[in-house]
Amino acid sequence: MASYNKVMLMGNLTRDPEVRYTPKGTAVCTLGLAVNERYTAQSGETREETVFVDVDVWGRQAETAGQYLSKGRPVFVEGRLRLDQWDDKDTGQKRSRLKVVGQRVQFLGSPRQGAEFQDSAPGGAGPKPETGGGTVRGTGRRRQHPFLMTDKESNRRNQSYAQEKTRIQTT
Are 132 and 146 in contact (CB under 8 A)? Predict the structure, then answer.
């Protein structure tokens, strides 16, 4: 029997990320994500539904998410579904809940909405925002959406943000 477990979500964080550490020192970050869907009902009325999803991110991505993300920030998450099951201590009933284990988290929008540092230095110097050019990794195709970027582009952008933040903090 074939199976495939892949989830792709884009939405806004409902709360600040919570970072915890396992006894062996591995970081685990829990994100609350709100995903909105707009549709037109048969009556012609436009409706909006919101789905709330819990996402667990592990390792270095967990630490980065905890450091740079905050409530309200838009993110794109790729991952897989996981079913958590437990016995309720109060009622003794079996409980379960679906969660997403995030394998890749892409930050969208400007960093912290300009709270700690700006995208460019005074006088126009400094890093320029990504425009969505390039190809999708491994396919040779042009990217269709600006939020899809290769790991190399993402790392380069994150390094330039970190350099700019360090420069601003030292001045």
Answer: yes
Q: What share of the chain is helix, strand, coil (3-state, %, to 5)?
A: 20, 40, 40
**126 Rama class: left (phi>0) / alpha (psi -120 to 50) / beta:** left
* C-alpha–C-alpha distance, residues 55 and 63, integer Å: 14
Q: Give residue 25's identity as a one-letter amino acid code.
A: G
Instruction: Output the pTM of the full model.
Output: 0.61
pLDDT digits (tens, 9 = 90+) for 124-169: 443 434 444 444 445 554 444 444 455 666 677 777 777 777 777 7
- Containing 86, the helix (H) or strand (E) segment is strand 74-87
Topology of domain 1-109, CATH: OB fold (Dihydrolipoamide Acetyltransferase, E2P) (2.40.50)
Per-residue pLDDT tens over the stretch 39-59: 998 898 999 999 999 999 999
